[in-house]
Amino acid sequence: MTQQWHQHRMRVQYKDTDRMGVVHHANYITWFEVARTEWMRYFDLSYHAMEEQGLMLPVLDVNAVYKSSARFDDLVVLFTRIEAYSPIRLVFAYEARRITEADWQGDATIDEPYGELLTTGKTTHMWVNDAWKPVKLRKTHPELYERLQQIAE
Predict the structure, then answer these.
(1) Structure confidence at residue 1 (pLDDT)
(2) How many structural domains compose the chain?
(3) How far apart are CA 90 and CA 72, in angstroms?
(4) Any idea what the Cα angle at residue 107 is, between residues 9 and 64, rounded to 5°?
(5) Which of 27, 45, 128, 129 has a CA between 20 and 30 Å from the CA of residue 89?
(6) For residue 22, what is the domain's CATH number?
């Protein structure tokens, strides 16, 4: 499995914080979705194009482990990579880290996450058709499966 992480930089918005002044825990799950969508966009795997082909990728499981709190106006980098894949499932790993402007490494992909670790997470997905029936991607969309293999290896 590849060790390359895709990175997406964002600034914490006031709306994402709670009365204690920290990012509400549920927002990290939304951030994972943003990071996953940006990962897919970077690797030219558009959700729109997949859905037009009758293919969807719903979340089966989500996990987050909180290490430290992000606060309003913090600069955060969301790191994303494939942790595991098969013809039926896809697992993404995430790290949210606080950085300074000087820390930012602008390349789209990077070998190792950097900055202060805030949260780690994973999402597990299953490939389904537009009738919500599981599909074996290698069989139904071999070009997409081959692309995932290229990215992951």
Answers:
(1) 53
(2) 1
(3) 32
(4) 45
(5) 27
(6) 3.10.129.10
Collapsed DSSP state (helix, strand, coil) of residue 23 = strand
18 is catalytic: yes
pLDDT of residue 111: 94
Rg, C-alpha atoms of the chain: 16
Beta strand ranges found along 1-153 (DSSP E): 5-11, 55-56, 59-66, 75-85, 89-99, 109-110, 116-126, 128-129
Instruction: Give per-10-residue mean pLDDT for the chain (153 aa).
Output: 86 93 95 96 91 95 97 97 96 98 94 97 97 96 93 87
pTM of the entire structure? 0.94
HSE (side-chain half, CA atoms, 13 Å) at 83: 14
Out of 18, 61, 73, 130, pick the active-site residue: 18
Domain of 113 in residue numbering reads as 5-152
